């Protein structure tokens, strides 16, 4: 009888502890969502441009997002170069040839468009890029013959980035290292954007002055804070009057995100 009582008592306290932990988790991670959206909305809803952001936290295993243009999809501009490289690596089981690697280095680090077109053709052109989007679960992304005019959403880009910086069934560890190392070595004049106030990051930016969309300015990548926390992030904007306007919006969002993710 006493032993049965002790077991019941132990079970009771285990249940209480689990309930407390569950409440703590809901409060902590729920509050992160509300704090991120509150900080983001102060930037997004004071902008006259179309803005959308998505962030993934490996601590919570959640994607957080906000936008002032629900349902809007954005032209990728040069951010699509990450998808082209990831698609090519997923397609070729033996990795890149030496020539392809030199093209990939120019495409990511220098944002070289001729190198991109060559690798885009190796991938299979528009259909190869669409297949890449489909394989990575990027259901809201559409490939275009002019690769820079492909359309996407920040949430879709997070799916791609998570395959590069976290677990992936499509990319080997070597493939991930190849992409990550190139994104960590972009030229200094192209390191603005989601990297704001960070010293450990991997990044690819895109910018294009295009018709009614005016200035398209985007930034995607991975950030690791000094305390060890990390996250993937994608910010897309268009209808900017100048490139600098879009850049400033992205960096404002990046700074508030960093402070809350630490």
TrEMBL record:
Highest rank taxon of the organism: Bacteria
Originating species: Limosilactobacillus panis
Domain Beta-lactamase class A catalytic: from-to ranges: 103-237
Signal peptide per UniProt: none
Membrane-crossing segments per the record: 12-30
Molecular-function GO terms, alphabetical: hydrolase activity
Protein name, as recorded: Serine hydrolase
Keyword ATP-binding found: no
Keywords, sorted A to Z: Hydrolase, Membrane, Transmembrane, Transmembrane helix
PANTHER family attached to this UniProt entry: BETA-LACTAMASE (PTHR35333), BETA-LACTAMASE-TYPE TRANSPEPTIDASE FOLD CONTAINING PROTEIN (PTHR35333:SF3)
